[in-house]
Amino acid sequence: MDSWNLRTFRNDLSIFIKLIEDSNVTGDFTELSKIINELESKELIEYKIDSLCFHINGRIVGTLPDELNFCQIYLDHMLMAKDNMQIDYDPLHGYYFDINVFAYKNKSDTAKAFCSSWHLDRHLNKEETKYTHPSYHFQFGGKKMELIDEELLVLSSPRIPHPPMDIFLGFHFIFSNFFSNKQFGFVKSLLNNYDYQQIIKRAQERLWTPYFQAFDANKQHNDFTINNVFPLYIC
């Protein structure tokens, strides 16, 4: 479990913050520096961020209504590693990952917000459920969306299988899905940066390698099994 080394994680975060600053990524990322300081007194990788905010000054292609030209994306995220890091078990004992999107007509007209929300949830209950529950899954919707329009239908399904993400993979997900690489030059610049690539690869090693090994019939894992990560799959 060398990928869970706290010193390596803290060093990666320090480099990551510098990359974000040098690339002029738009948003308020001051909470990242707070995590750096808090990790000095930790023995394991654990942190919590609330309402870390990305700013997109421009339209996200395909967005409706189509006159929305300013967007704020808030990331609420908590990750806590287990103190008995066993290779055959899920290394996390505390986790949430919420993306809340607020779009406006423009940067100077924020009187009305159009909202959207995605949650990467963790399902621990192994008991029989009424609907399929992948161990980690994305769900669309949220409390704010229930109040937008009386004709809006917010469903708890489908739950879309997705591996867990940490702060690095979360940034990578938001860059790749919400920031146009044609409009924002920093996207391609970061994705082609060697230090950025190595940080993302180490994050993938921590959280994605054991998850995706569930699809390898020769691998045995107590938590990341094909039936847990992708219960729709018929073995």
Textual characterization of the structure:
Strands 1-2-3-4-5-6-7 form a seven-stranded antiparallel β-sheet. The protein has seven helices and seven strands. It has helices at 6-22, 30-39, 167-178, 185-191, 194-207, 209-212, 226-229, and strands spanning 27-28, 46-57, 70-81, 92-104, 114-122, 136-140, 160-161. With 235 residues, the chain is α+β, with helices and mostly antiparallel strands. It is 29% helix and 23% strand. The model has no long low-confidence stretch (mean pLDDT 90). 22% of the residues are buried.
Q: Tally the helices.
A: 7
Look at the helices and sheets and give the structural class: alpha+beta
What fraction, in percent, of the residue positions are helical?
25-40%
Q: Per the principal axes of the C-alpha atoms, what is the gross shape?
A: globular
Low-confidence stretches: none
Biggest sheet descriptor: 7 strands, antiparallel
Radius of gyration from the alpha-carbon trace, in angstroms: 19 Å
Terminus-to-terminus distance: 29 Å
Strand content: 15-25%
Q: Average pLDDT across residues?
A: 90
**SSE string, helix = H, strand = E?**
HEHEEEEEEHHHHH
In short:
It contains 7 helices and 7 strands; from the N terminus they run αβαββββββααααα. It is of the alpha+beta class. A 7-stranded antiparallel sheet has the order 1-2-3-4-5-6-7.
Jot down its keywords.
alpha+beta, 235 residues, globular, seven-stranded antiparallel sheet
Q: Which SSEs are present, and which pair or pack?
A:
Blueprint (H helix, E strand, L loop, with lengths): L5 H17 L4 E2 L1 H10 L6 E12 L12 E12 L10 E13 L9 E9 L13 E5 L19 E2 L5 H12 L6 H7 L2 H14 L1 H4 L13 H4 L6
Antiparallel strand pairs: 1-2, 2-3, 3-4, 4-5, 5-6, 6-7
